[in-house]
Amino acid sequence: MLELHAGSLHVEAILASWYSSMKDKNYGAFIPFVGIVRDEDGIEGLSFDIYEPILNNWFNAWQAKAKAQNAYLLMAHSKGDVLNHTSSYIAAVVSPKRKVALKMINDFVEDFKANAPIWKYDIIEGKRVYAKERSTALQGHGLLKETHES
Asked: Is the separation of the CB atoms in 88 and 6 below 8 Å?
């Protein structure tokens, strides 16, 4: 399940909804990851642009990897502005066995940071500032991908 939301994510509501939808499906592990925008380098927050067709393809490929291990992925991400100390990214893996879920959540989050078609801008004095010096080419697409950690 892939969800895109305008602005900061409502972490508690999203996690509760996911837990509620998964708890009766006989998975033994529910492992979430919540990314929180840090107050650093004088930014007020981050702003996000998403290229949804590539994101859907990337996520569907991961969902196929999860299915091969009898697991399931959930992801929510923000579009637009997200202020410091709020969340822009939530991912979770459910699986019958914890070891599968623990490994997959780590691999998924790392690949997300490297390859998902989501571009971050710093919000400085109310303006979006693209950080080209922290960007890399998005593999296979010739687009820039911002690599600043959130």
From this structure: no
Q: How many CB atoms lie within 10 A of CB 53?
A: 9
Q: Tell me 149's DSSP state.
A: -
Residue 31, φ and ψ in degrees, nearest 5: -115, 105
Cα 35 to its chain centre, rounded Å, is 8
In tens digits, what is the pLDDT along the chain, a chain of 150 residues?
999 999 999 999 999 999 999 999 999 999 999 999 999 888 999 999 998 999 999 999 999 999 999 999 999 999 999 999 999 999 999 999 999 999 999 999 999 988 888 888 999 999 999 866 655 555 554 455 544 444
Q: How many domains is the chain built from?
A: 1
Contacts of 127 (CB under 8 A, 6+ apart): none
Domain that holds residue 42: 2-146
Phi and psi dihedrals of 42, rounded to 5? 75, 15
| 40 Cβ neighbours under 8 A, 6+ residues apart | none
CB 54 within 8 A of CB 145: no
pTM of the model: 0.85
